[in-house]
Specification:
The chain is α/β, with parallel strands linked by helices and 1014 residues long. Helices cover 62% and strands 10% of the residues. It contains 45 helices and 18 strands.
């Protein structure tokens, strides 16, 4: 190529660049530079606007059209053809200021360039994100191309054909289906009432205000739908941000649409259309046509004399003609005129609306105007209805998300995230819901959606990002203060922000005043100063995400340091806040320490269910951060501590069948073997015991309990001994070793010091004294000391209530009802079971299934008892499966369902053999005998069961089951004429010590012995 040719090409490229820059400037864009044959244009930098994407598309289409025209001329003149391709993408760009220029970086630029490279000659292509912002305003055609938008999943590419003509929104007919409106029934009722008044020639004006996305436009649309208005009854126009300096722009736009323009219209045909419009009403065309033609920039030709009035008189004539056209139209049929977004209205439009409001009372017109809260009418408002739209409540949010999801309910955690981040704003709710549905995180299952995997925080939808950033970018320096505040969270203290910000206190205070005035922050006054909160969670998220990652990390580090050094009371009261700041700053060791402290505080609070959920969240976060630490002993110790707490938190929240509990226990075992003896050995063994015990792995549970007791004995640690002995005691009781269990449990009561050991309940989930006494109460009852057993059970309830620890209270009441059942103390059963049900309903204890099973037995509700037992079995519960199904067997036997009762009892006996849970075996054999003998008094198997029950009871030193089975066997023997055997059996019982005299069965045995000895 000759030198002249290179220069010509360079000159040509320069002209094209200048053309692109000029078009971008007119559309309020920015020329950001060129590289080779590529030109970069920015829309929304340095200040974002809500219509950035639309202006970018208009500019791209204009550039493509102008270059095609230039190419045609060059081709004809010099045989040179120009080719242009454009790509549009919406996203975040990182800017870096240098000495000479501003450098722009990020995936957004790469995606836009890739879109342009893939486009056909002369085409404009948009990404999927940009498509969401252009749909409805441009003709878009889906292509077969897909391009990555900075994530692993490629998104479709759309060709931008042309901008669609400005038209009023679709007007649904009477039979059309429309998406329901949620939470606006009162407002609609008011508007429909006002419509009723205009039909009596009493015109009405209404101003509806509310923040972006609150549903102002949707309210107007729903009003028109309910009133069944046609195209001639409903006029709509809208003020626009980029037309603020265009006089009467919304009115001009409305007039243009009333003319019903055609693509082939000439100046003459447009004038004829205007004449036809005005001729339908009693206008003097020679007066009205020139006025409106001037407004619409329609040449008059030689048919009309142009207006010669001075500007003020011309304005008055224009206003009068426009009002006359509206009022004449309303003479035939009532008219609803909707003027939207008055906060963007030009001054002349505001003035005309003031004239409309002043004269509307005599016309059959309802003027419905909408605006954001910052708009203040310049006209008198005494006769105008003003409606301020509020946020939707939780019920409406749930109904709206289900509607968007095709009538299928969303999972609770998804709904919670949408409700929290959308803050009741319908547009936010809609876009967040659609984003979740399109993310692939859910799958359909029957009439609802369920999670297909772990739920992550939903990103701000592209359709909302520009809206939110536009509000922030208009703030000037206050935007930086909003970003610094966003680092502190949605709610923050002005005092803390002042300590963190690089600006001085006066500048921060000034910025906060501006943010409050702009309705971005809400301020509340507290004793220590003002507390601020972002009006919307998504607004805070947008401010936060607009900071580059490194800047965010530095801001979090400053925040953590300032709180620790200047606000130690906050660090003490809110360790989770410091954990978040340190983690966001990349300081994982400190983040883990604070998360552990936060979890401990959550578990130690005498509060409801939310504490365990909070603790689990903190612990999962901390466990995830461990990977950032070196793999050394310190990290292993930290992981063990966290897993210990996690096991307890999960048990409190879900019970022992949670899969996560098993995983945490196994990991604790691995870490224990790796670390050997350490200060964490005892807490780790405790957590392992709880898991094995509740899963009814009897050998493993007792081995862990014995190791704990032995460790405490060797070290002389009384605290550890106090909470270790009840574990061993309960193991021994369940295994039928009652005297050994009694000795361990009574030792606990002797060692327990309320001041020293009372706090253990909030660490280990159950108070040691309560745990010992409830177990001892059952042991003593079984050993033949019912009064002592009941006394210990009632004392355990009192101790638990004094601690205000719900798990301890619930467990104590559960065992007390069990003791009343064992001792057949019917008079106290009903009252205690009612209290237990009330507690379970209120606190949702993890052992709810046990509680409800016992209470159903008290009420004689066999069906519900069977459901609870089945639910326990289905969840993997093994502990107690020798006892609770026997309650169902009792009710079945009472109702004559002996076969079903025997099945339940046989299941219990098999469970006892399989698990080693044998303390109730004597009673199971006795109950089985009773069922068999009720069906056949001569059944030999009945006698065998009773003898087996007596033998096992004697092995266990369980005097209560022994005497009950002995009495039953004696009755069988006497009925069969074997009185000598019966007398011999009862003679052994008659010699029992007096300390068993409280058992009613002992008196019955002695009375029977006297009777058969006569």
């Amino acid at each position: 190529m000759a030198a002249m040719e290179v220069e010509e090409i360079d000159e040509l490229f320069g002209e094209v660049q200048e053309l692109c820059a000029e078009v971008a400037r007119r559309h309020r864009g920015r020329f950001a530079g060129a590289l080779g044959d590529q030109v970069l244009l920015h829309f929304g930098f340095p200040v974002a606007q809500e219509d950035d994407a639309r202006r970018a598309a208009r500019a791209a289409l204009e550039i493509a059209a102008r270059i095609r025209g230039r190419s045609a001329r060059l081709s004809a003149e010099r045989g040179i053809a120009l080719d242009v391709r454009a790509g549009i993408h919406t996203g975040v760009v990182v800017t870096r200021e240098g000495q000479q220029h501003i450098q722009h970086l990020g995936v957004t630029l790469q995606t836009a360039a890739r879109l342009g490279a893939l486009a056909a000659p002369g085409a404009v292509q948009a990404s999927g994100d940009t498509h969401q912002l252009l749909r409805g305003a441009f003709e878009l055609e889906a292509t077969e191309l897909r391009v990555s938008q900075g994530s692993a999943r490629a998104a479709p590419v759309y060709r931008v054909r042309e901008e669609l003509p400005r038209e009023a929104p679709e007007r649904p007919g009477p039979g059309d289906e429309a998406a329901p409106v949620f939470g606006r029934e009162q407002e609609l009722a008011l508007l429909i009432q006002r419509w009723g008044q205009i039909r009596k020639s009493a015109g009405q004006s209404v101003l509806v205000t509310g923040g972006p996305g609150i549903g102002k436009s949707r309210l107007a649309l729903e009003l028109a739908r309910r009133l069944r208005l046609g195209p001639r009854d409903w006029l709509e126009c809208r003020c626009m941000n980029d037309r603020r300096h265009s006089p009467l722009h919304p009115v001009v736009d409305l007039l243009e649409r009333l003319l019903e323009p055609d693509a082939g219209d000439t100046s003459r045909s447009r004038l004829e259309r205007l004449e036809a419009l005005l001729s339908a009403y009693p206008f003097d065309l020679s007066d009205a046509v020139p006025v409106l033609a001037a407004l619409l920039s329609i040449p008059l030709g030689d048919r009309y004399a142009p207006p010669q009035d001075p500007p003020q008189r011309q304005k008055e004539r224009t206003f009068a003609t426009l009002l006359s056209l509206l009022f004449e139209r309303a003479e035939r049929r009532p008219v609803l005129i909707v003027v939207e977004d008055l906060h963007w209205a030009d001054a002349l439009t505001i003035e005309w609306l003031g004239a409309l409001v002043a004269e509307i009372s005599s016309a059959r017109v309802l003027a419905l105007m909408t605006a954001r809260p910052e708009f203040v009418p310049s006209w008198p408002t005494s006769g105008m209805l003003q409606i301020q739209l509020g946020r939707l409540d939780r019920a409406h949010v749930q109904a709206m998300t289900a509607e968007i999801a095709g009538g299928r309910a969303l999972p609770g955690e998804v709904l919670e995230q949408i409700a929290r981040r959308a803050d009741g704003v319908p547009l936010f709710i809609e876009e967040l819901t659609r984003m979740v549905l399109e993310s692939g995180a859910l799958r359909e299952e029957g009439d609802r959606h369920v999670l297909a995997g772990p739920l992550s925080e939903v990103a701000i939808p592209t359709t909302l990002r520009g809206l939110l950033m536009a509000r922030l970018d208009r703030l000037g320096r206050a935007k930086e203060t909003a970003q610094a505040a966003a680092v502190l969270g949605r709610e923050f203290s002005g005092e803390v922000l002042g300590a963190v910000s690089a600006l001085g206190p006066e500048a921060v205070e000034e910025d906060l005043e501006r943010l409050v005035a702009a309705d971005l922050l809400h301020r509340r006054h507290r004793a220590r100063g003002a507390v601020y909160m972002f009006r919307h969670a998504l607004l805070r998220d947008a401010a936060y995400e607009s900071l580059p990652r490194r800047t965010r990390q530095q801001a979090h580090a400053r925040s953590a340091r300032a709180i620790e050094e200047r606000f130690p009371e906050i660090a003490e009261a809110r360790p989770e806040l410091l954990s978040w700041h340190h983690a966001s700053a990349g300081q994982m060791r400190q983040a883990i320490a604070y998360a552990e402290r936060a979890a401990e505080r959550a578990l130690q609070r005498p509060a409801g269910r939310a504490d365990e959920t909070e603790a689990v969240t903190h612990l999962h976060n901390a466990l995830g951060w461990l990977s950032a630490l070196p793999e050394d002993r310190e990290r292993a110790m930290a992981e063990m501590r966290l897993n210990n707490l996690l096991i307890l938190a999960l048990l409190e929240r879900h019970g022992y069948t949670a899969v996560e509990v098993e995983a945490a226990v196994r990991r604790c075992q691995e870490l224990s073997e790796t670390l050997g003896d350490s200060p964490l050995t005892a807490p780790t063994l405790w957590a392992m015991f709880v898991y094995y015990h509740l899963r009814s792995h009897r050998l493993e549970a007792r081995a862990v309990a014995e190791r704990l007791v032995a460790t405490a004995e060797r070290s002389g640690d009384t605290g550890q001994l106090v909470w270790s002995l009840p574990l061993l005691g309960q193991c021994l009781w369940i295994e039928g070793k009652l005297p050994e269990a009694r000795a361990r449990l009574e030792r606990v009561l002797a060692l327990y010091d309320p001041e020293a050991h009372g706090g253990q309940a909030f660490i280990y989930g159950l108070d040691a004294r309560v745990y010992a006494e409830i177990t001892l109460s059952v042991v003593l009852c079984l050993m033949g000391y019912p009064d002592e057993g009941i006394a210990h059970g009632e004392a355990a309830v009192a101790s638990a209530r004094a601690l205000e620890h719900w798990n301890s209270i619930g467990m104590a009441q559960l065992f007390l009802v069990m003791v009343y059942h064992l001792c057949r103390t019917r008079r106290r059963l009903a009252a205690e079971s009612r209290e237990l049900v009330s507690l379970v309903d209120r606190e949702k204890l993890w052992f709810e299934g046990y509680c409800r099973s016992l209470c159903c037995w008290v009420e004689g509700d066999m069906e519900r008892l069977a459901e609870h037992i089945e639910a326990l079995r289905g969840s993997g519960v093994l502990l107690g499966m020798t006892y609770y199904p026997s309650l169902l067997a009792e009710l079945m036997a009472e109702r004559g369902r002996r076969g079903a009762a025997l099945e339940q009892l046989d299941d219990c006996l098999r469970a006892a053999e399989r698990t080693g849970e044998v303390y109730y075996v004597p009673e199971l054999y006795r109950l089985r005998a009773a069922v068999l003998l009720a069906g056949d008094a001569c059944a030999p198997e009945g006698e065998e069961c009773l003898r087996r029950a007596i033998a096992v009871a004697r092995e266990q030193a369980a005097r209560l089951p022994e005497i009950r089975s002995s009495l039953a066997l004696c009755r069988v023997l006497v009925s069969r004429g074997r009185r000598d055997e019966a007398r011999l059996l009862l003679g052994d019982i008659d010699g029992w010590p007096r300390e068993h005299g409280a058992m009613p069965e002992l008196g019955a045995a002695r009375a029977m012995l006297r009777e058969i000895s006569r």
